[in-house]
Amino acid sequence: MKAVGIIVEYNPFHNGHLHHAEQARAESGADLVIAVMSGQFLQRGEPAFADKWARTQMALDAGIDLVIELPYVYATAQASDFAKGGIALLEAIGCSSFCFGSEQGAIAPFLNSRQLLTEHAAEYQYLIHEAVQTGISYPKALNAAYKALTADREGFADLTQPNNILGFHYLEAAQRLGSSMEPLTIQRIGANYHDSIEAGLPIASATGIREAFFKGDSVEQLSAYMPETSIATLKNSENDYGTFGSWEGFYPLLRFTVLRDGPEQLKQYAEVTEGIENLIYQSAKTADNFEAFIALVKSKRFTRTRIQRMMTHIFTGFTWQELHSFAGPEYIRLLGMSSTGRLYLNHIKKNITLPLVSRAADLNGPMGKLDIHATAMYLQGLGSTDMKKEFTTPPIYRG
């Protein structure tokens, strides 16, 4: 059996995600689609809108065949490490290709860009260094260096676009891993990554959907942008918890943690660097909501996304020492499967190169324990202390 892999967050699962899955299957000619999905916290440093079980159910109901969890250490990492974790898991579970949505819509420019940066690595690093010295953030320094390197050349990917950036890192991770998976991309359609909802468009961004909900729209009012099955699952999730994940909801606990720990402890947490622990501490003293807090901390050097990742690690207690202790994914945590997915696992199980885990109780190593801890902290943010779901829920099955 032939599998195509996709790396996702489904925060929440919407019509654009459905299009991506269907096109990945069609473009690859695969028998099944395998999704590596972030757990309770996400790459942009945010708590997930709905928990990983709800998002797994949405994915299976929409036709995904296998859902496996991207461990916390990679799910909340900068783009290159996020890609490294996701690609390594797709390789380990035997995918013959991987497919990502992009603004570019064609794979050749990504291959060209990867070759250019490999051949001109020293020049690229020098340009990055020069750009950082001007005081801009590291992501903007990368963009400036790349723009300078490609100024007189044609046929390269536009790496100012968010999905293109992730796609480039997927390709980079696969090549560094020595993967034989074929890289594929499809054109991203509808709203852009950060866009608000626009009436009349059937495809909205997940950002826009979350924004509309927190501004007062009900789950039902967002039905134009998501499959019916996603709406039903979100309604059930809202009934279970009474709310959805957001930094505004989590902020009282985050603020308490920051003020309790103080600057000396804060700088031990992953991604907290360059003395920003002092600003974080002082800002938490005065800001009574998350948006006010972000406004005080954000600067040219520190983007919102980077600050949010810091806050995620502070909230969960994830340290620099822990971050540097992991070399790669240590297991494949199975969250859900279709009948085709189960058939595939039976077919491939002898060739899977990482332990296949279906119960939280079997996550005995540091990486797995971190995932369980992240779930406990996520539930605290939602006002719940019930960890039964994490330990008793078997992989969701959709026959």
From TrEMBL:
Its main location: cytoplasm. It is found in: Cytoplasm. ATP binds at residues 7-20, 101, 163, 188-189. InterPro entries: Rossmann-like_a/b/a_fold, tRNA(Met)_cyd_acetate_ligase. Keywords: ATP-binding, Cytoplasm, Ligase, Nucleotide-binding, RNA-binding, tRNA processing, tRNA-binding. Pfam families: HIGH_NTase1. Signal peptide: none annotated. HAMAP family: TmcAL. Belongs to the TmcAL family. This is tRNA(Met) cytidine acetate ligase. It comes from Planomicrobium stackebrandtii. The lineage of its organism: Bacteria, Bacillati, Bacillota, Bacilli, Bacillales.
